[in-house]
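Sharing a chain and its predicted structure for anyone who wants a worked example. Both blocks are below, sequence first, tokens second.
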Amino acid sequence: MSRRAFRYLLFHKPVHVLCQFTTGTGDPNANPERRTLADFIPVPGVYAVGRLDFDSEGLLLLTDDGPLQHRLTDPRFEHPRTYWAQVEGMVAAKAIRAIEAGVIIQGVRTRQCTARIIEEPKLPPRDPPIRYRKSIPTSWLEITLTEGRNRQVRRMTAAVGFPTLRLIRVAIGPLRLDGLAPGAFRYLTPGELEQIRR
């Protein structure tokens, strides 16, 4: 009997969606309206490769291929993930250099990464929208990490004085968010699968 083929999906996670298929709280008083991946992806047996915070958006890879999942999440392999962060304030070059060199989070310095200021990207509006304060300008950063610590981008920008207001993961290695609407998913193409298996 031949083995079932693995499945590989890309999903554009909207804000305020749990990065799992059940609420997993066990609390009968938990908010039943809290959305999970099951509200968007009718494919059983796949799991997220890494996580995105409840209040973050963007690209999520799901699969039932355990060895690939391990390779993509193990920090030893330094698999890059790219984020766009909207932050409070006008970011200076000094803050960018500090982010790239590594900042101390919970007593441990983050790995070196790449960061740059970018123009405001064309994105679908966030629902709910971010808190807007006319008196405080905002900047957009592109940050590429090779590690995935808890709420890392938010903690890095806060450490250099620029709290994150909106955070979108736009790439996982060669896989891009382009063309995928919030809440939509699709299967990887053979070419994309070959790229991530390298």
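Comments welcome. The two ends are 28 Å apart (CA to CA).
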